[in-house]
Design a protein that fits this description.
The chain has 209 residues and is α/β, with parallel strands linked by helices. The chain is built from 8 helices and 6 strands. It has a 6-stranded parallel β-sheet, with helices on both faces.
């Protein structure tokens, strides 16, 4: 892999889970823990939805579980309680620097040294995301760290809108939602760690581990 994967780009937007942090198994554990009072076959359906829609927020996924899978109403109070419990589990388990994907970290550090602006646009809760990045000592590499409840499409569009002096952008992600966010803002997309993205976007990074 080239020492400067993003040569020619003025700005880089990163997804977080599965791209910077190897968090997939822990995120799944969080959903299982929060929903352990419910039938396992229903939770399995939620996990399948979660895997197919990595870029969506937990708010959307909990709503999907109750409103689509279980076909019952989910109050805002209960949603808040579930999200708070999920966030507590994530903060306990995701702060370890050992979960950082070193291929990503090398490129993030290189971008920072080059003075290339870079941002995080994630489906994870924004407050939690910023706490995790600070705990992992990577927050200072980014010009902005953004997450849910704002939709990723809107986050990406806002980042680009706020930096009009930057002409060429790319987004690096591991889910179809990341690809769609890049497509909606008409910027380049690099896929990683998801074979279904090999035919999407501008480039697929094979050795992103």
């Amino acid at each position: 892999m080239s020492s400067d994967v993003f040569q020619g780009y003025d700005g880089v937007i990163w997804d977080y889970d599965g791209v910077i942090l190897d968090s997939d198994e822990i995120r799944e554990f969080g959903f299982v823990e929060c929903l352990k009072a419910f039938p396992s076959h229903e939770v399995d359906q939620l996990l399948a939805f979660h895997r197919e829609n990595g870029g969506l927020s937990r708010f959307v996924k909990f709503r999907h579980f109750f409103e689509v899978i279980r076909k019952e109403e989910l109050t805002e109070e209960r949603l808040s309680q579930l999200c708070a419990k999920f966030s507590s589990i994530m903060r306990q388990k995701l702060e370890s620097k050992s979960l950082l994907l070193q291929c990503a970290i090398r490129q993030i550090q290189h971008n920072h040294q080059m003075g290339r602006p870079q941002f995080i646009a994630s489906g994870s809760a924004q407050d939690e995301l910023r706490v995790l990045c600070k705990a992992q000592d990577i927050d200072t590499y980014f010009d902005g760290i953004f997450g849910s409840p704002t939709h990723k499409n809107d986050i990406v569009a806002a980042i680009i809108r706020e930096r009009p002096e930057l002409d060429t952008w790319c987004l690096i992600g591991d889910s179809i939602n990341d690809f769609h966010a890049a497509e909606k803002s008409n910027i380049d997309f690099f896929g990683v760690r998801n074979d279904s993205l090999k035919t999407r976007g501008n480039r697929y990074l094979e050795d992103w581990q």
